[in-house]
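Response to reviewer comment R2.3. The reviewers asked that we include at least one raw input/output pair. We reproduce the pair for PDZ domain-containing protein here without editing.
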Amino acid sequence: METGSPPRSSSAPRTISSPPRTIKLTVFVDLHKEPSGEIRLGVGAGTQDGSRLNVVNMVKTVVPDSAAARGGLQPGDVVSTWDGEPLTSSFTLSSALALEAKVLDATTQPTKRVTLEVMRQINKPKEHEEAIKEQPDSKLVTVRLSLRSGHKSGLKLQGRQVIDVTADSLADKAGLRVGDVLHSWDGIPLGPQYTPQQAMDSRPEALSDWTAVLLVRREVTDDDDTASDTGSAISGLSGLSLGSNNWPSNLIKIQLKVPESKKLGLRVQGNTVVDVYEGAPAHVAGLRQGDVVQTWDEMPLTNSFTLRDAMETAKVGPHDPVLLVKRY
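Raw output as returned:
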């Protein structure tokens, strides 16, 4: 469901597109010394030596099957550090590569892995937009995946689809299943520009343990509880009012201002928020992608009275509805 979109003309529908989002990635590149003694990264504009990069170390092109391509660098990436050393207009990507060539010349090792920090602008991929549309044979679920430095996730992927989950692994304990399709990681859409592996590699700085919230498309089976997004939380809410201070730690209260247009600026499936438009009333109120709304003005949301139903019946002032939200 979509609400809060800009006015549409009667002549042609308008498509809402989110602005590009800049993220920081960690990229690992294996450099190899060729028989000629050269080390080629595989970036530039028609060359392989990086000499065509601009002053801010932006990658113009990536040579197929090069060290850069295998490491995951993409055109448009801005490389900010090389093995922890900040890149500047004087110490460029080309300078760093030349330095590595001298290091390898002084050793007997033919290869070296370097760690790059990269700034990348990503657009919301079309497959993400298609994924959040309602589908009768599947549902969107939020999964909280706890990760630990030095521990494997136990997740085997083909693209964004889970093809194997190691028993008793971090992924297994989080509830991920074979067949799940990952669509966002901590609110950032996954796709060719930002893969699940890159998301797992880019852990928060100085943290050895951290938790990521995933939005996952999952096929519905006969064993699934269709009310699982809300049932577990709602069952324990009896006897509590919105004024209570005894809510579980992952339940928060959000007051939502309904504008005259009644357009709140979010997409939902069931009672789960799957997208929030920046600057819209829902965004200003603090709703996030992955939030599961439990109640609307103390009215429990269920399969028969959903978040969509509540939004469609929302009234403009003087009372702003208060939502109880489960956040992972």
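The chain is about 15% helix and 30% strand. The longest helix spans residues 93-105. Further pairs are available on request from the corresponding author.
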